[in-house]
TrEMBL record:
Domain Xylose isomerase-like TIM barrel: 26-264
Enzymatic class: isomerase
Entry keyword Isomerase: yes
KW Isomerase (keyword) present: yes
Documented EC number(s): 5.1.3.41
One GO MF term: isomerase activity
Organism in which the protein naturally occurs: Coprococcus intestinihominis
Domain of life the protein comes from: Bacteria
Protein name, entry field: Fructoselysine 3-epimerase
Key words of the record: Isomerase
Gene3D superfamilies given in the database record: Divalent-metal-dependent TIM barrel enzymes (3.20.20.150)
Amino acid sequence: MERKVAELELGLFTSGYQRYTLEQAFEDASRFGYDYIELWGGYPHAYVEDLTARGVGEIDRLIQKYRMPVKCFTPEHNGYPFNYMAGDEFQWERSMVYLEKAIELTAAMGAPMMLFSAGHAGYQMTGHEIEERLQKSLERLTAKAEQQKVKLILEPLTIYESNVITSLNDLERALDKVLSPYLVGMCDLAVPYTTGEPAAEYVRRLGGRFGYLHVIDNDGVSDSHILPGDGNMPLEGILREIRRAGYDGCATIELVTGYLKEPSVYAEIAIKRIRSIL
């Protein structure tokens, strides 16, 4: 007899609202029935340097006004403006300081999680050099996360975006080298779909070290993040298998730059489609 799995909590990612006020994203999340906000840490909404200088008072105001928690902060990085996997030691240090500030801000706004990934390391680093740089980066950021009591969510990227963590094996190997309850992995559905992996295997293999999900559709041959139902993915079956594997946590519907013109319209369509699938 199959055990019953609780409903996934569905989050709205604010990146798609970058041509509108941040308040519009909170208002839409409330009126469309989202459970939480994944806050994009980019300009003009919640850029790390701006929040460091001005504080998180405006974020707190929106949380209270719309009764909409921020459960995850996702600072913009990986080349825009920083990439800890590329550049010299000076640039690596600046990237570390930037992400450490982001961890502090995550704690300050009361969000339990911060999401980050490993950007492209370029074409001149050896595999050994990439592994060394990744490990020292994760060790430093995890130490900061433990201090701030913030859980770090490490996101694999597609092969079109990075050459560091682009598969379940890559993710598991990275987590094995830095063992901490404050560092866990996740799955963006575009990643296993483009690499030919079953998404639910992330949940099975990582177990308690699996902590987050990005729900999106994809064409199978690019890093495209497509409105659920408009791509080629068998989303209903994939989500069913993920839930059967035991995952019942947070799942952000990750609409990004392809829907900047009408983010409200697509945010409503997206959650209706995912709710109907679930």
